[in-house]
Design goal:
With about 120 residues, the chain is mostly beta strands. It contains no helices and eleven strands.
């Protein structure tokens, strides 16, 4: 069973930094991308950052220049370095991956989320 597990959330003051990690495990044949999304109560989940195994990286405009997505060695672990945090960054952050557990499969998987709270 494929699982994505996030870690690293917490409480930080405005201007502070946090690093989130996402580890994929299970029967993985190929990872196509790893991404981060976030969601606040009553709002839709929104895109934050993505890194593809083709070498593409993209960020939401709201986090460009402050957040950095990177992989930690193998592609099954991806980090999100968050600097200069603002109260509006407060949300539950979710890891998402498009991956295949076999040569012919490609599915979307989500982690359970980790809370990030930025106090003013």
């Amino acid at each position: 069973q494929v699982r994505l597990v996030e870690s690293g959330g917490g409480l930080v003051h405005t201007g502070g930094s946090l690093t989130l990690s996402c580890q994929a495990s299970g029967p993985i044949f190929k990872i196509y991308n790893m991404a981060w999304y976030r969601q606040t109560p009553g709002e839709q989940r929104e895109f934050v950052a993505i890194a593809t195994t083709d070498g593409e990286i993209d960020y939401a405009n709201s986090v460009k220049g402050r957040f950095t997505i990177s992989r930690d060695g193998a592609w099954n672990t991806v980090n999100l370095q968050m600097n200069s945090l603002k109260p509006e960054d407060t949300a539950v952050y979710y890891c998402k991956s498009d991956l295949g557990s076999s040569p012919l499969s490609r599915e979307e998987y989500w982690g359970q989320g980790t809370q990030v709270t930025v106090s003013s």
